[in-house]
Amino acid sequence: MAVNTRARPAHQAGPGGPPLRRLGFLLVRRRRLVLSLALALLIGAGVLAAGAVPGLSLARFEAPGSESDRAQAELVERFGTGSPDMIFLVTARSGTVDDPAVEAAGRALTERVGRAEGVAESASYWTRGKPATLRSEDGRHALIVVRIPGDADHVRAEVLPRLVPEITGGAEGAGPLQVRAGGGEEVFRETVPLARQDFVRAELVIFPLAFVLLWLYQRRAMAALVPILAGVYAMVIALALLSGVLAFTEISTFALNLVLAMGLGLGIDYCLFVVQRFREETHDGKDRAAAVAGAVEHAGRTVLFSGLTVASSLAVLFALPFDFLRSFAYAGIAVVVGGLVAAVVVLPAVLASIGGTMLPRRAARERGGPERRGGFWHGLATRVMPLLLAAGRLATALLLVLASPFLGLRFGVADDRILPPEAPSRQTQEIIRQSFPAEETDAIQLVSRDAAAGDVSAYATALSRLPGVAQVDSAAGSYAGGTRVGDGETARFQGEGAWLSVVPSAEALADDPVRLVEAVRTVEPPFEVLVGGYPAELSDYRASVVDRLPLVLALMLGITFLVLFLMTRSIVIPLKATLLNVLSLGVMFGALVWIYQDGNLSGLLGFTPTGTLDPSIPILMLCVAYGLSMDYEVFLLSRIKEEYDRTGDTEEAVATGLQRGAPLITAAGGILALTFAAYATAQVMFVQMLGVGMAVAVLVDATVIRAVLVPSLMRLAGPLNWWPSGRPSGVAGTTDRVTTPAR
Question: Which of 304, 543, 676, 678 is at 20 to 30 A from 652, Cα to Cα?
């Protein structure tokens, strides 16, 4: 005889039981107070959130404490100089930059830039003895290099917005010069507002689209609106929490983008989990109070474990010593907290108040709700499980093929090509890349405290012979190809010790600047040196990120494994989930390499491939995607585990759990995937990568992984799934199929 699982009649439902069930009844009884407090919290959080946005930092990609960081500090302290923060590209309206009128205007402009507020140094082709590295090959362009001391917020938010219009606008008259702004700081300054525009534009599409999709799934307007409001609630709470974090650390402005991208998705997911369970409990004949309590007890537990896995996945970013990446950990954890508050505390009070408007219409209830046996997903699971070897092999082979481009991954560094072609700073950099033989603004700097003049000469000669080095400037003169080519600006390199400027060729910088830095560091110096400059900063940053990647992976896999073990009391299930999630991530990275590294679909998506991927964004996506994959794994496993505890039959538990959970997972995954896919139209390539990569990961995870591989592998493992706990908590016996004797 089957185990009797009929729910108690409504009059027997009571407030006892597990803590979450008691919490559910408490939220029902105090629903007016809860809703009043929730509204007050929202208003207060809104005030804090409004103050948080201006406080976000324009953090740089940098590695604090690295060799390049120490070299930069030495340059400033001992020589009063450093790497240029920006450049002005000066173009002669007629003739060349060597014409007397153009030269006079160029010198005057250089002096004018140097006198501008916030500028510490200004030099140009005309003031540095006309080196070839600051003049284009056709003679039409020359460069002014500018150093602006201070942190990124000071440079990008205070100095550049004032300096760029003043210099470029003032030279647009009838004079002999045309001036454009460029350089790394200007590129980044233009990236931030474009990224914000991308996210705002995407959100304007996502909100109505999400409402339509939710209505199609729920068939009730209120049931479609409430999850969206939960997502907004999660965003506001998250931004308010970030305002508190800002009191003791910097948070990148790009963290706001993560809050917007994840807030709505997680808010909808968590809310759907609770609403779906509320519908099921109501369908079983429970009154509204008991249905809410049951939803909090079961779906609330799932949501809490899910939030813990997502937060844990993002928390591993704290293992990286970079404020830029740590910002996303703060933002992601804050979003999870906001989503949990909305789904586990506020939503039950809403259901207690207007729960009737969230239920299916009468006609749908009469046909049977999600609890009915059979159905598409139940049938799929029962069909897949007998053919588990063939289905599992086919699905695995498909995913491995999709993931195979990942084997060709090449890490590189981002440049101006993350911006659209019409961005002014990118246009400036394109001219420099195509017209100048070398990149003096991105020179590698070698700093020494104890260098002697003779040693400097020999060292500069050796460095100038390296492939990819256009020129080496030092206190001993300028060198190219192993030969002294001029006196250079020797006074610039004199001070307490000595320093050298290794100017890379345009080809070397475009090909692989990190490789050039490594070549420079392999040249044996006659004295102790520190290697700095923009290419070295990129090299140190990339090396620091890649070197810590194994630690990040180990922490992420270990922590989420522990969370799943605590939920299932099984070792096999977390191990299986980890392997499947790694496979899902492989598909995501395969798509990133195939599209953004190799350039496929670049015409359709409107970006310019560089042949490499910057490691920062993929690592962020790794943590986010892994957490979201575990989100659906937790929900599906909770339904399967609940059914197994009830029946002790693994095969039936998988089929029934899939029937109950898969429609919701598919709907939530589809909405979340479309949410991310909306960013595929972004102007900034980083935002595009985030949207496309996450959409691919979510779609693969919510379909092939959960619908085919999960039931296949669980059927293959059989009773071993639940090792070492073994026994289902609600059924006596240890066999896979349990027959309960009649009472």
Answer: 304
